């Protein structure tokens, strides 16, 4: 590593920290309905949507009504996306004459995009028509992120409410997230990406003869508009199979830097929104600090591993990496994308050094709470906060409380379900897969790395990340069904308990802090929170990791190959 | 329940209209209006025929051109791809040994020369348009010989490479690199008769 590497990393981290209060403060204003410059324009758009859909956004919902609305809206999204894929050959804008998508793949893709996972078993450029890409996938990129924010808002209201059942209106939360936040950010970002060379056109693919006279196809489409929301909404599903390695998704070092920043921008800023909306900014920064410390630690380990790898005697390990990004930017991206449940890639994670691959996997296994998905990361982290106040309450004999709300048996039960559901998917589904011989024909590498491919796939599905050790051919009926199911459990196995916790907290009294209250907005709590997250993650996954990346690292050191 | 269902349906289609139709159309409109070249793929034409995109790498295997990085998909873009091989892969190990000796042999370099790692490892996209500066410089002698250049022209060739080095964006971001297609077009232009 040289000076430039350190400066780029420092600049990235500094900009992130600087943008958190700006965007976080703006989002708080949006959700509180406060005024700000330029608001009337947005409000007109918001109101027109309510008129078209005949929504009365002033009617508050209790948590059960809210949950029902979330589920109906998501179910509708899955059904619609499924149908337009299966029948894409009968629909317009099928420029390349592609056939309908098979049922298992359409199920997997529909579930994957509606849940903000954006796992892709296919390569977009040869599987999906521009109609499906924009009318189907781009839409879900927006509303799946908005769903995450909505669920977070319910939890915030649950925490600050005093003995009321009202947790907000899902239609309003969803609409505002899209209209005021995701859409304007994406519009600006998409146009910026075009200036760097990301394609945005109605023109079809262009077949050419290269300088040496070889046939090549210049792939085209409405890429920038999808790329922008893909990064901002922690979606990660690329227009191309090869994602942000592709020069038309990520053409320059500057586009790369901006796209990396976009990965963490909203999830990180939401910690500030949380602080603002609960009236305790310190608490927001404490949550940010816990995430930041884990992010930087993981990043440091990955950089160390990547720069000290034994790459068959070559000066550096450039397999699966782009020349314009180099090692440092590839690692920074890989770290951010796995922390944030984004899942886009600018280098092939499968070809990283074994320990870098392990940290990427662990980032997802910890529950996608190091910044995590839009909304999803923070509500996931708050589940760990509940566990932490409970565990530390047990240790020091204090009543578990968080921001004036007593944490009781129901909340703990729900928190445990939310932690166990994705972990169950990762370990049990991986175990089933390795015992099912036909599935193993999908492996792209043998030895320990082959096991890592499977473990990574289910970690990615359960954490709603969507990145892959892409040597694995996941476009088989078995993997499409298994991963699709895992994605559903990983998403709604967390959303449902979180909504239940919110409903339960909402009806509780606010108890003023007493001498017996464990303070949750100081440095000690940052430490306790990280300790609980790491302990749960390590205890659950160390055995599995030692069969995959850890053993592979040792084999690499001895020069063993498979 | 029924009303919730219909609200969901109507909101879903409003959102589809807003984010799936209006949003991409607005972006496309502005992009085509102000940045048409970039938005249509940064195409390069030679004698009025499109011969590629400056962002999409092409395979260059002949001796008279600067060679591109190895690509797992052979610079095909439908779809493009990476090897996804790991550092404990026997296949990757063999590829590295083979590419190393091939690079040294083609460029008539002694065994002691360190081959830049971008020429040993395949890229992520399979369409990487760039190679490292050192990878370009190590190929200069071979190209000069293959094109029967005089020693004066050889110096010019080196100048071409220096001219085409893209430094870090904003003096800071990314890595210094050379765009292979643009460089090859330049030398084709400069040394027309000697192809």
What does this structure look like?
The complex is a heterodimer of chains A (562) and B (195). Chain A has two domains: 22-276, no CATH class; 374-557. Chain A has a two-stranded antiparallel sheet with strand order 1-2. In chain A, strands 3-4 form a two-stranded antiparallel ribbon. Chain A is built from 18 helices and four strands. Chain A is mainly α. Chain A is globular and about 75 Å long. Chain A starts with a helix and ends in a 5-residue tail after the last helix. In chain A, strand 3 (401-402) and strand 4 form a beta hairpin. The model of chain B has no long low-confidence stretch (mean pLDDT 94). Chain B has two domains: 1-40; 42-194, no CATH class. Chain B has helices spanning 2-34, 36-39, 90-106, 133-137, 140-146, 151-164, 180-190; strands at 43-46, 49-53, 130-131, 165-166, 177-179. The radius of gyration of chain B is 23 Å and the shape is elongated. Chain B has seven helices and five strands. Chain B is mostly helical. Chain B has a three-stranded antiparallel β-sheet. In chain B, strands 1-2 form a two-stranded antiparallel sheet. Classes of the chains: A mainly alpha (562), B mainly alpha (195). At the A-B interface, helix 1, helix 2, helix 3, helix 6 and helix 7 of A face helix 1, strand 2, helix 3, strand 3 and helix 7 of B.
Nutshell version of this structure?
By secondary structure, chain A is mainly α. Chain A has 18 helices and four strands. Chain B is mainly alpha-helical and 195 residues long.
Shape of chain B: elongated
State the order of secondary-structure elements of chain B, H for helix, E for strand. Answer: HHEEHEHHHEEH
Chains forming the largest contact: A-B, 123 and 96 residues
Distance between the termini of chain B: 75 Å
Rg over CA atoms of chain A: 23 Å
Rg of chain B is 23 Å
Helix content of chain B: 40-55%
Helical region count of chain A? 18
End-to-end Cα distance of chain A: 30 Å
Which structural class do the helices and strands of chain B define?
mainly alpha
In percent, how helical is the residue content of chain A?
A: 55-70%
Cross-sheet strand order for the largest sheet of chain A:
1-2
Q: Kindly state the mean pLDDT of chain A as a whole number?
A: 95
């Amino acid at each position: 590593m040289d000076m430039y590497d350190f400066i780029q990393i420092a600049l990235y981290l500094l900009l992130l920290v600087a943008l958190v209060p700006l965007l976080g403060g703006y989002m708080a204003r949006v959700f509180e309905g406060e005024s700000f410059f330029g608001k009337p324009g947005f409000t007109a758009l918001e109101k027109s949507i309510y008129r078209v859909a005949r929504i009365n956004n002033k009617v508050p919902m209790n948590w059960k009504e809210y949950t029902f609305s979330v589920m109906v809206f998501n179910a509708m999204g899955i059904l619609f996306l499924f149908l337009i894929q299966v029948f894409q050959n009968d629909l317009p804008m099928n420029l390349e004459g592609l056939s309908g998508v098979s049922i298992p793949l359409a199920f997997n893709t529909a579930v994957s995009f509606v849940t903000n996972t954006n796992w892709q078993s296919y390569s977009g450029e040869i599987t999906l028509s521009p109609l499906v890409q924009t009318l189907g996938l781009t839409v879900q990129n927006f509303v799946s992120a908005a769903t995450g924010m909505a669920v977070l808002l319910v939890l915030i209201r649950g925490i600050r409410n005093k003995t009321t059942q009202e947790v907000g209106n899902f239609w309003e939360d969803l609409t505002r997230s899209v209209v005021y936040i995701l859409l304007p950010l994406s519009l600006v970002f998409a146009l910026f990406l075009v200036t760097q060379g990301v394609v945005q056109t109605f023109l079809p693919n262009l077949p050419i003869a290269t300088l040496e006279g070889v046939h090549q196809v210049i792939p085209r489409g409405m890429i920038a508009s999808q790329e922008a929301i893909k990064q901002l909404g922690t979606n990660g599903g690329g227009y191309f199979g090869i994602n942000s390695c592709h020069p038309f998704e990520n053409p320059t070092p500057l586009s790369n830097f901006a796209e990396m920043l976009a990965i963490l921008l909203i999830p990180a800023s939401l910690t500030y929104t949380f602080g603002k909306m609960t009236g305790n900014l310190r608490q927001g920064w404490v949550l940010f600090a816990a995430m930041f410390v884990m992010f930087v630690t993981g990043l440091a380990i990955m950089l160390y591993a990547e720069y000290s790898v034994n790459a068959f005697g070559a000066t550096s390990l450039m397999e699966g990496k782009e020349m314009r990004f180099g090692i440092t930017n590839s690692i920074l991206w890989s770290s951010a994308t796995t922390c944030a449940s984004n899942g886009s890639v600018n280098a092939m994670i499968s070809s990283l050094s074994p320990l870098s691959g392990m940290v990427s996997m662990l980032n997802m296994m910890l529950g996608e709470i190091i910044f995590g998905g839009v909304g999803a990361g923070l509500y996931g982290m708050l589940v760990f906060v509940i566990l932490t106040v409970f565990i530390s309450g047990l240790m020091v004999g204090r009543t578990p409380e968080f921001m004036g709300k007593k944490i009781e048996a129901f909340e703990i039960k729900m928190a445990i379900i939310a932690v166990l559901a994705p972990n169950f998917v990762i370990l049990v589904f991986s175990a089933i897969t390795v015992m099912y011989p036909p599935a193993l024909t999908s492996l792209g590498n043998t030895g320990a790395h082959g096991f890592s491919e499977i473990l990574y796939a289910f970690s990615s599905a359960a954490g709603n990340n969507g990145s892959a050790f892409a040597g694995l051919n996941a476009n088989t009926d078995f993997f499409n069904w298994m991963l699709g199911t895992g994605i559903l459990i990983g998403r709604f196995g967390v959303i449902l308990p979180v909504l239940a916790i919110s409903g339960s907290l909402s009806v509780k009294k606010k108890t003023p802090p007493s001498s017996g209250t464990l303070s949750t907005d100081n440095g000690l709590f940052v430490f306790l929170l990280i300790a609980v997250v790491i302990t749960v993650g390590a205890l659950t996954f160390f055995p599995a990791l030692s069969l995959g990346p850890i053993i592979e690292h040792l084999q690499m050191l001895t020069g063993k190959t498979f | 329940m029924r009303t919730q269902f219909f609200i969901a349906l109507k909101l879903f289609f409003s959102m589809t209209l807003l984010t799936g139709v209006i949003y991409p159309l607005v972006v496309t409109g502005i992009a085509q209006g102000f940045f048409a070249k970039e938005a249509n793929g940064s195409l390069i034409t030679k004698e009025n025929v499109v011969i590629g995109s400056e962002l999409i790498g092409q395979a260059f295997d002949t001796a008279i051109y600067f060679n591109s990085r190895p690509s797992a998909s052979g610079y095909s873009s439908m779809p493009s791809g990476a090897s996804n091989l790991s550092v404990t892969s026997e296949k990757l190990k063999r590829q590295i040994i083979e590419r190393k000796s091939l690079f040294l042999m083609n460029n008539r370099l002694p065994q002691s020369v360190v081959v830049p790692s971008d020429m040993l490892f395949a890229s992520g996209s399979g369409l990487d348009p760039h190679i490292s500066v050192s990878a370009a410089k190590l190929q200069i002698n071979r190209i000069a010989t293959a094109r029967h250049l005089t020693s004066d022209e050889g110096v010019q060739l080196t100048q071409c490479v220096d001219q085409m080095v893209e430094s870090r964006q904003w003096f800071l971001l990314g890595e210094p690199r050379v765009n292979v297609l643009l460089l090859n077009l330049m030398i084709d232009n400069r040394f027309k008769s000697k192809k």
